[in-house]
Amino acid sequence: MKKVVPVILRHQVYGFEILAFQHPLAGIQLVKGIIEQEEKYDEAAIRELFEEAGLNAEPSPKFIGNFKLKSNQQDWYFYLCELRIDLAETWIHHCRDDGGLDFKFFWYSLDEKPNGSWHESFQEALAFLRDKLIM
Predict the structure, then answer these.
(1) pTM (global) more than 0.90
(2) Average pLDDT, the chain
(3) Model confidence at 71, in pLDDT bands (50, 70, 90)?
(4) Which helix (DSSP H) or strand (DSSP E) does residue 127 occupy?
(5) Backbone angles phi and psi of 17, in degrees to 5
């Protein structure tokens, strides 16, 4: 199964932070979703970012790379998305998935090792992103 992960980063004095959220039923996650049939991967990234976070990304996000997760053998495709707005430190977005859920968004340092609140697949994704994005 192929999934797309739209990545939002910000640079702080101490390093990069990535946009993450607390799912009310499934722990801390990154925005991700299924690539629909006939959908271009970069367009899927933009759509998923809007659906799960309510954010409108600029067209043509930059492809970071793809990674096959060891935990479930899914292929994840990562796209660096740009926004025209500055984001708050934290906020809640009501996502319509699964009957409607409130996702609590926050910034997470890429230098920080994820704890058990992160599902194993997202721990793998963070390690992949650290290797790709931090020189």
Answers:
(1) yes
(2) 93
(3) confident
(4) helix 120-133
(5) -120, 145
